[in-house]
């Protein structure tokens, strides 16, 4: 499912226009992004949690040349699914 299909599904289920559903989805995604920028954890009970995690610097290999390269430290986003989501996927 892509974003336009998700917006349509939200609009149908919540009895909203597609424009309002799109605005709501964009607002949710923006707030999740801003919270992660502030290094906050977002917990959506039953769905899951988003958190920022730090990755340390490490060594890797260039797949074309096989040359060893240094991969710098970076931050990433981790998602841990909640029980209800796990159960829905494993039916």
From TrEMBL:
SUPFAM superfamilies according to UniProt: IHF-like DNA-binding proteins
Cleaved signal peptide residues: none
Source domain of life: Bacteria
Alphabetized InterPro entries for the sequence: Hist_DNA-bd, Histone-like_DNA-bd_CS, IHF-like_DNA-bd_dom_sf
Keyword set includes DNA-binding: yes
Annotated family: Belongs to the bacterial histone-like protein family.
Record PANTHER family: DNA-BINDING PROTEIN HU, DNA-BINDING PROTEIN HU-BETA
Name of the featured protein: HU family DNA-binding protein
